[in-house]
Amino acid sequence: MLPDRFTANRPSFFINTAFLLGVMVLYPVAGALLFSLSGGSAEMVLVGGGIGAMLPKLRFMQVLGQLLVLALPVLVLAAVHVRRRLFSPESFRFLGLGGGVDSRLAWFGVAGVFLLQPLLYTVAGLQNLFLWPALGEAGAEVVRQRAVMEGFISELAGAGSLSEFFVVVGVLALVPAVSEELLFRGYVQGNYAASMRPLYAVLLTGTMFAFFHMSAANLVPLALLGYYIGYIYSRSGNLAVPMSVHFVNNLSALLLLALGGGSEVAGPEPELLLGMAWWWAAVPLSLLLFVFVMRRFSSIASAS
Question: Measured between alpha carbons, how far is 130 from 125 in angstroms, rounded to an integer?
Fold first, then answer.
């Protein structure tokens, strides 16, 4: 009897998982170190405020951490896998980059992530209304940590001019979209898919993607988002598509912040929407449209 795919590729699976876990541990450590080197302190994050003069340094450190800890190791490992120089076309192809891509895949992928937002809002709202209060002190701590992190992100995303807003978009939307997709979809999901069914690779990578963001309050919405982006990559086969989806999702979150506050995933006070009758009509409608868009996306991907 021939060994199944997982048994045959078990060493690759464990090496891939160890690498991802190492990055997930190293990234916050490196972030804390860079934050400290830039003159920041834990009190600034916990109390809020007082980082205005440090914003250029903090934004630079954010970009540096993403590139050095997430993107660069992936590029190096891709070059090792294909035994070519760094930034070679073969390395990029290994990560799902290069070659033509039907622009309709990106458009439908972006449309899908917008149509998914009402579901993510609803999940976040239900957690806020029922889960965190039911967990007592533990739930209150989750809410407190979320408020601290959202306050810090709001300060980091603050922009006093249009030019500064473009800088913020680069720092908090573009660079994370590229770096995180290189790691999670380009390298990790791609390697998992060699040792298990594509669906399992999507689910496992999406779950790790959610834990990577270290936000207990947003764990479920982030996992759902990760599954969606993983599916988009699995069907399209080109990393430019999930990068585009990830970027637009991040950009929409920044626009929500600029328009009056919101969280990384769920936007402003999602539980308030759950008390509105029209919301419970909008959610199933958005999901029906989502299914239609995904069917169209799949048909285009199959024909490409």
Answer: 9
CA 50, 55, 59, 60 dihedral sign is negative
Question: Pick from 150, 178, 175, 166: which is nearest to 48 by CA?
Answer: 150
Structure tokens at 177: 């979209």
Please list the alpha-helical segments (H only) found in 38-159.
Answer: 42-47, 55-65, 72-82, 89-94, 103-126, 132-134, 137-156
Asked if 94 contacts 81 with a C-beta cutoff of 8 angstroms, the reply is yes
Tokens for 90, please give them. Answer: 């073969």
Running along the chain, 304 residues long, what does each successive block of 10 average in pLDDT?
Answer: 55 86 92 74 55 82 94 95 91 90 94 96 93 96 90 86 94 97 96 90 97 93 97 96 97 84 53 89 97 97 88
In 3D, which of 267, 233, 242 has the Cα closest to residue 253? 267
Q: Is 120 left (phi over 0), alpha (psi -120 to 50) or beta?
A: alpha
- Let me know if 189 is exposed, middle or buried by CB neighbors in 10 A (0-12, 13-18, 19+): buried
Sign of CA dihedral 208, 212, 217, 218: negative
Alpha-carbon Rg for the chain in angstroms: 20
Residues 6+ apart with CB under 8 A from 282: 118
